[in-house]
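This is your field. Have a critical look at the following sequence-structure pair:

***
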Amino acid sequence: MARITASKRQSLKSSQFALPGKGTGKGGKGPGSYPIDTRKRARNALARGAQHASSGELATIRRKVHAKYPGIKIAQKMDGGAVAPRLDRAARR
C-alpha cells in the first residue's frame, strides 16, 4: 500500500473516510479517521477498526466500506467480532 502524505490526506474529501473528523487541530474538524479512498485502504480500515474502534464505530466502518466497495467480503467470527476481510475470487482478478 502506498504511503499517504499529510497533504494528500488533508486533501481527501470527508466522504473518503469511514469516520468523521473529531474537531481537533488548527484546521478545525479535520478530514476524518480510517481513509477508504482505495480498495487497499478500505481493507486496512476494516482491520484497524476491528483492533481499535468501538462496536458502533466498527459497524459504521463496515457499512461505509461495503457501500463503496461491495466486492470486499466482510468476514465475521462466530461471536460477531471481525476478522481480516478478504476479497472474493471474482473481485481479486
